């Protein structure tokens, strides 16, 4: 008897796993907020005997060292990963006994990183699950360009070989359980579904259906932007992250919020883009709690700059704190909950800006306004509004002076990134209209969409 529990990290687009038997279990690629893993083990009534990492992560801070310390578990890390803390170095073929008849076998699968290691869970010697980390994903593989540019092509070729090794050594019915691929920028493409097996990947994954040269060419051509905060994740994971503090931050009143803005700190409003546009603290930025707040805030904020969080409810604030510690933004300087009329000094009124749709833009016409596209270059290449200006949202705070004069109609693919951009422009004193609409509606609204 064995079990595998999946823990979704939706904001970052990753998964972590707890797998085990009747008495003991192993945690695979745990998040930094390890209370979720401990709660899962408690529900199962098992002791965590092993904590394993498939690789040193580039997109989040691990909870592995702290989870191993608290549980007394053996901490298994690939031998090739250079870390500054005690761990059990894992080499290809090493086997760890998890529970009676249940074992975990290490399989070297370089590609996402040079030291990447997958783990095969075996029940009575029979493979029952493969934890593939950033190696073989659902319909794709982990990107090979996050370590060192000179290694990228070599690692891409290694990804192809590693995928073929897993496919050759494991039965077709073996479930493939990756860490990346569900929205994480560590994936070379979005996962093609929610679950898969070795057999399904043999039929559909380009790493297993194309020759190595064709695969590498296509893989390298499709690589997208790398979030800036990734630079800090590897070193944090190699050094051994500190425990997290998820207690509520100090409460800020209107005067303190104004003082923090005046000092150049970031004040981040977590409410919906609809609520933010209708009324907000002038100078604050809108990163929706229901969006990819950790990814985009960590990508855009100058690293180490203090942040104050404004939330509708304590629950919204707590959820955002949890997401942010996963990417190394540990403690907000202050926070407030409620509504903007409580966050502005007495006598002041909240700021606002209009929202619209692509139909609204078409009705207004593009003459005399700036149409700003804040999607990534790969998205824009597939189609963009004729005459629009392009600055990806993650570059806008550094390039805001490049936005031409005039009222700015800002759009993305669905509305969330346009809201971030609109808040940055509004804070800079620009007249802005946030296009809260899917880009697929642009052509149908009568706007001229061109490619290239």
What's a concise summary of this model?
Keywords: Hydrolase, Metal-binding. The protein has three domains: 3-239, Ribonuclease Z/Hydroxyacylglutathione hydrolase-like (Metallo-beta-lactamase, Chain A), CATH 3.60.15; 254-342, Oxidized Rhodanese, domain 1 (3-Layer(aba) Sandwich), CATH 3.40.250; 355-450, Oxidized Rhodanese, domain 1, CATH 3.40.250.10.
Task: Break the fold down into its secondary structure elements and pairings.
Layout: E1 3-9, E2 14-20, E3 24-28, H1 35-44, E4 47-52, H2 64-71, E5 74-78, E6 88-90, E7 95-99, E8 102-108, E9 117-123, E10 126-133, H3 152-169, E11 176-178, H4 198-204, H5 206-209, H6 212-221, H7 230-239, H8 254-262, E12 266-269, H9 273-278, E13 285-286, H10 293-300, E14 307-311, H11 314-325, E15 334-337, E16 355-356, H12 358-364, E17 370-373, H13 377-381, E18 384-385, E19 389-390, H14 393-399, E20 408-411, H15 416-427, E21 432-435, H16 441-444, E22 449-450
Parallel strand pairs: 3-4, 4-5, 5-6, 10-11, 12-13, 12-14, 14-15, 16-21, 17-19, 17-20, 20-21
Antiparallel strand pairs: 1-2, 2-3, 7-8, 8-9, 9-10, 18-22
Helix pairs in contact: 3-6
What can you see in these coordinates?
The protein is 30% helix and 22% strand. By secondary structure, the protein is of the alpha/beta class. The mean pLDDT is 96.
User: How much helix is in the residues?
Assistant: 25-40%
For CATH, the homologous superfamily of the largest domain is named as Ribonuclease Z/Hydroxyacylglutathione hydrolase-like
Indicate the low-confidence ranges by residue numbers.
none
Radius of gyration: 23 Å
Number of domains: 3
């Amino acid at each position: 008897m064995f079990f595998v529990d999946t823990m979704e990290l939706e904001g970052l687009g990753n998964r972590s796993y707890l797998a085990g038997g009747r008495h003991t279990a192993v945690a695979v690629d745990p998040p930094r907020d390890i209370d979720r893993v401990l709660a899962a083990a408690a529900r199962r009534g098992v002791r965590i005997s092993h904590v394993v990492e498939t690789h040193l992560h580039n997109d989040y801070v691990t909870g592995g060292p702290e989870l191993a310390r608290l549980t007394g578990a053996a901490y298994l890390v690939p031998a090739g990963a250079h870390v500054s803390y005690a761990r059990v170095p894992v080499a290809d073929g090493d086997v760890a006994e998890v529970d009676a008849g249940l074992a975990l076998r290490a399989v070297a699968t370089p590609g996402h990183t040079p030291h990447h290691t997958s783990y095969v869970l075996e029940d009575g010697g029979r493979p029952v699950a493969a934890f593939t980390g950033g190696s073989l994903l659902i319909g794709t593989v982990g990107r090979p360009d996050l370590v060192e540019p000179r290694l990228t092509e070599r690692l891409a070729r290694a990804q192809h070989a590693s995928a073929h090794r897993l496919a050759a050594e494991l039965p077709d019915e073996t479930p493939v359980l990756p860490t990346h691929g569900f929205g994480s920028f560590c994936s070379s493409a979005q996962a093609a579904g929610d679950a898969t097996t070795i057999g399904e990947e043999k039929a559909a994954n380009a790493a297993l259906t194309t020759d190595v040269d064709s695969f590498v060419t296509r893989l390298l051509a499709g690589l997208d932007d790398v979030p800036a905060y990734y630079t800090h994740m590897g070193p944090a994971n190699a050094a051994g992250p500190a425990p997290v503090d998820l207690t509520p931050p100090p409460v800020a009143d209107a005067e303190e919020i104004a003082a923090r803005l005046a000092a150049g700190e970031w004040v981040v409003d977590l409410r919906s883009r609809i609520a933010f546009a209708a009324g907000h603290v002038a100078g604050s930025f809108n990163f929706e709690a229901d969006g990819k707040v950790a990814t985009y805030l960590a990508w855009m904020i100058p690293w180490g700059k203090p942040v104050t969080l404004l939330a509708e409810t304590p629950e919204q604030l707590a959820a955002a704190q949890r997401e942010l510690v996963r990417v190394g933004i540990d403690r907000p300087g202050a926070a407030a909950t409620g509504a903007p009329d409580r966050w502005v000094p007495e006598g002041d009124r909240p700021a606002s800006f209009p929202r619209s749709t692509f139909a609204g833009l078409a009705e207004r016409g593009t003459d005399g306004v700036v149409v700003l596209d804040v999607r990534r270059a790969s998205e824009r290449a597939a189609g963009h509004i004729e005459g629009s200006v392009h600055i990806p949202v993650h570059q806008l705070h550094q390039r805001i002076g490049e936005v031409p004069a005039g009222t700015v109609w800002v759009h993305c693919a669905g509305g969330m990134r346009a809201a971030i951009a609109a808040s940055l422009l509004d804070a800079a004193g620009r007249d802005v209209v946030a296009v809260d609409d899917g880009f697929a509606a642009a052509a149908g609204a009568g706007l001229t969409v061109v490619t290239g």
